[in-house]
Known about the structure:
By secondary structure, this protein is an alpha/beta fold. The protein has a domain at 1-72 and 207-257: Rossmann fold. The chain has helices spanning 44-52, 74-79, 97-108, 123-135, 151-164, 181-194, 207-213, 231-235, 238-245; strands at 4-15, 18-29, 33-37, 59-64, 67-68, 82-84, 169-173, 199-203, 216-221, 224-229. It has a six-stranded mixed beta sheet, with helices on both faces. The chain has a four-stranded antiparallel beta sheet with strand order 2-1-4-5, covered by helices on one side. A hairpin with a 2-residue loop joins strand 9 (216-221) and strand 10 (224-229). Helix 3 (97-108) runs parallel beside helix 5 (151-164). The chain is globular, with a radius of gyration of 19 Å.
Amino acid sequence: MSTYALSLKDLNKSFGPAKIITDVNLDIEKGERHAIIGPNGAGKSTLFNLISGLYTPTSGSVKLHGEEIAGMAPHLINHRGLSRSFQVSNIFINMTVRENVRCGVLNAMGQGYSWWRNIGSNKEVQSRTYEILERCGLVDKAALPASLLPYADQRALEIAITIAGGADVILLDEPTAGMSHSETDRAVQLIRTATEGKTLIIVEHDMGVIFDLADRISVLVYGEIIACDTPENIRGDAKVREAYLGDEEEPDVKEMV
């Protein structure tokens, strides 16, 4: 069995004549926190969609814990231990916070809501749901309809749903987008706590978040990875500075989006 949580080999994706992802090779170790950054249009969301099964690669390989998942349906990939969030909050707004998380827990247990079964009496489901709510700082909001949550709490709920399935590889797509500075600080702490012991792959535009969370960073430009290294080395990489900022001598990492 591979020691890598996720392994991409010669991965390509084209839409007609447009080549969006070009020969991407990337190995992410178990328990690693890996960030993917790049300018707008670099192909970051397309890469996430290839990994999570929303898109089928034109060619190449995607392996999860050493097993090929390229072209597999998203729900089957999820059952193999990979879960993702999206740029836009993806929650059930007419359900309570608790019910949202409980859906994820039930899915992980191979169950679902049934009108003839009293879900509330299932102690294992209740215990796991409470554990996730507590981990994500949502216990005091558990009975609220998700639609009434502030934006930052809706994003926290989405992270809670993402980890509720029990996946050990978590993909987060711009989890702090649209947040204030204080909300971002809280989100970073939440992500660190909620994904402890798991493999995290994150796309994020806020470089402060990236440098705070990531063990390694991959830089994607026009569908190609031009650098993959530690945050310290990426910060000083001339190719990265040029890709983001042209020939400027002293880039501000906050502008590396």
